[in-house]
Fold:
Amino acid sequence: MTGSVSPLPPSPPPASLRANRDYRVFLVIQTLSALGDSFSFVAIPLLVLHSTGSVVQMGLVTGATGVASIVTGLFARVIADRVDRRRLLMLADIARCLLYATIPLVWLFATPMWLIYTVVPLAGGFAMLFQVTYVTVVPAIVRPDQITRANAHLFGSYAVATVGGPTLAGFVAAAAGPVAAIGIDAVTFALSAAGLLLVRLRPPAEAGREESGKGGVRQEFLAGARFLWAHPVLRPLTVLLSACIFLTHGTTDVIIYRVKEDLGHGDDTVGYVLSAGTIGTFLGSFAVTRVRQAFGFGATWIGGTALSGVAVACLGLTSSVPLIGALSAGMLLATAVAGISSMSLRQEVTPGHLLGRVTAAFWTTHYSLGPLGAAAVTAAAAGFGVAKVCLAVGVGVVCVALSGTVTGVARG
Structure:
């Protein structure tokens, strides 16, 4: 900022999250956006399956979206620390609104699969930009000692939205087709972008902004990775999560394929199963603060990840839809506890002016194997069957989690 008058320092956030207006508005906006996300979460795989009948094609779309996210992450780390973060969130929402809106518009006249392979990865890139910026926004709204609780609330609201969302999406898909559900998602992104106008963010410290501008883009680009690699907990955590993402990135596609193709149920049943699964996220968001306080980060992350692996291993061993839903809930409960703890730790230990770059480096690295994993897991499910693949994936996740006991993660 230029001029002879220095700006007033930003006012500190209220002592209570309930009294924090900006946090309340942000929570409502993200709940609305999550409700829409849950529609495309179900509708995109269903649309691909309806159009091609192939679980491999589902995996390829998921993999292409992962590649777009990784490429975007390479630049998001710098952008999120240089550009006004609220405007960046709005840009990501508006872009996804326009991209998803093209699918129902084009589908009125034709059904080109190339459009899915174009729009969905592009939307995935903007989703990565949104997610990186979203993580940097939470510490700009709440106090440092409120970060874990705020993240738990946000994950909880996301779970509430996604409990009903997949069920509604399943009904909409069964009644009007998956394309209609994608159209609803586009509308929610537009509403989320408008709501962000009401949220005020505290800017990073002046010293942090000055440091962010030094050394050129290349140095800024590497700053997040250097911080991440130097940290005794974040470094091994990134490596372990990379292995977990490789194993689990195609899990949703496999569950949808199992319910629809192996067991012969309809789109509405797919919605029920995925809704049941997200109940686990809701319960995990309630439990994470107390679990982390009681056991510490290391035991919380290792235990949560191991339990999610056990649930995945059991998914392919049953033909009971209610049991598949219950196992999905258990998997996502454990994943939520581990994931919220991981994100909160990163926000707590990273300087505010580096948070965008560190977050992007973290996600870009551990998602780098996701596209390959999604393609491999779905291809294996088509070739060897869901039961064997789920068992192999689950055992692999448990082994990855237990290997964390000999790293800095256990002492985090």
Remarks:
- The chain has a mean pLDDT of 80.
- The two ends are 38 Å apart (CA to CA).
- DSSP finds 15 helices and no strands in the chain.
